[in-house]
Amino acid sequence: MSRVLIVEDEAHIAQGLRFNLEAEGHNVVVVGDGESALELLLKPKNGDKAPKEFDAVVLDVMLPGKDGFAVAAELRAAKKFVPILMLTARGRPEDVLKGFASGADDYLPKPFELAILLARLQGLLRRSEWMQQSRENTSTENEQNPTAKVAEYGVFTFGGRTIDFGKLELRVKENVIHLTLMEAEFLRHLIVNQGRVVSRKSILEEVWGLHEDTDTRAIDNFVVRLRRYLEDDPAHPRYLLTVRGVGYRFVPEP
Q1: Which of 44, 83, 91, 241 has the most other CB atoms within 10 Å of its CB?
Q2: Torsion angle, CA of 21/26/31/33, rounded to 10 degrees?
Q3: Rg for the chain, CA atoms, rounded
Q4: DSSP string of 39-93?
Q5: CB distance 197 to 247 below 8 Å
Q6: What is the pLDDT of residues 152-204, one digit of tens each?
Q7: Where is average pLDDT lowest: 48-62, 79-93, 212-226, 234-248?
Q8: Per-residue confidence at 108, pLDDT binned at 50, 70, 90?
Q9: What SS3 class is residue 199?
């Protein structure tokens, strides 16, 4: 049984979600503001040695006090990588992109259909289970052939760097960088198309599920962050190259 935290200040939405998620067999906790969510997720309570563990968080953007963006960013900064389904206002592209930048794993615009939310949440929970399985039994096939097709549990190695898609980890020398789901999917898209120019349009549509008329500056900001992970000198990248006016190109062997 999965434990789900709902962070929603509109009581009728929160209680409706609780009722339906519990009917699906989930254990549900509801809080109405960002500060309470961070208390639960990051700080031990009542003599506990560790914070409460949740398998997923349904996080509204518009909250009293700290908004959903701030909550997601603080969780990721604290190395808390619980899957986050963010509820955005009217599905505005700027909210969606800001949510991904802050560390959300998926988004759903309000108003939403309950069936869609349940499907999105189940997808995050299923991926979390896959990650747990891969920690116990990571396939060695891609380690032996790092340029092979990047599978669900794939491991891709280049330039002394290893991306483990099952664990959502990037290993650079002795450092281990935890990736959000969106960071991993972005890298997967680049790797599958390695050597080829990947347009911003394809990134928007195939990675983020957005329309091509969305402002693409958020992609550029996303790439800046990935370069800090991947490159020895992010100002002079060797692996993740900009193709001016078009998009990007990933070159594993410069």
Answers
A1: 83
A2: -70
A3: 19
A4: HHHHS--TT-SSPPP-SEEEEESS-SSS-HHHHHHHHHHTT----EEEEEETT-H
A5: yes
A6: 447 899 999 999 887 788 999 888 988 877 788 889 899 999 999 999 888 87
A7: 212-226
A8: confident
A9: strand
Strands 240-243 and 247-250: antiparallel
Cβ atoms < 10 Å from Cβ of 63: 23
Q: What is the mean pLDDT of the chain?
A: 83
Write down the pTM of the prediction.
Answer: 0.70
Whether 42 contacts 80, CB under 8 Å: yes
Cα 14–16–19 angle (5° rounding)? Answer: 110
Q: Strand, coil or helix: what is 15?
A: helix
How far, in Å, CA of 237 to CA of 24, rounded? 47
CA distances to 138, 170, 197, 245 from 249, rounded to whole Å, are 28, 19, 5, 12
Which residue shows structure tokens 């008329």? Answer: 213
Q: Which helix (H) or strand (E) holds 250?
A: strand 247-250
Ordered structural domains, the chain, with CATH? 3-134 (3.40.50.2300), 138-250 (1.10.10.10)
What is the amino acid identity at position 19? F
C-beta separation of 72 from 99 below 8 A: yes
Closest residue by Cα to residue 79 from 155, 175, 153, 162: 175
Does 232 score more than 90 pLDDT? yes
For 234, other C-beta atoms within 10 Å of its C-beta total: 15
Strand 169-172 and strand 247-250: the pairing is unpaired
